[in-house]
Structure prediction request, 130 residues.
Amino acid sequence: MARTKRNNPALSMEIGKIIRKQRKAAGMTQAMLAETIGLESETVSRMENGIRLPSIEKLVEMANVFSVPVAVFFEHVSTSKKQQDNHLLAEKINMALEKLPEAGKFFVLDVAQNYARYHVSKPKTVRKKD
Prediction:
């Protein structure tokens, strides 16, 4: 089987996370999923870790196994590199926030809002010439 070239690591990571989420929701191990769709368990591991992209055919097979539409694998896939980077950053921030007590979460929100107010420049207004 030919390897799928990874030109977009963020895409590979996002699809891998969704494969893992769907597999766990289905109560399957990597080995069980691999056997069901005709792959090695190492290949499923590489897909889940964003090292390898599955082929369209394998995504269709996984969608059938999980009883979900193929579109599920692309729900959170952004169209631009900047959007992908922002999405990954938001996930990292969310993971960090989950570890904080409630008061800490509000403190971080307040700091972020104040930082944005201070550092984000307001658009310049164009003055009309008389």
Notes: The chain has six helices and no strands.
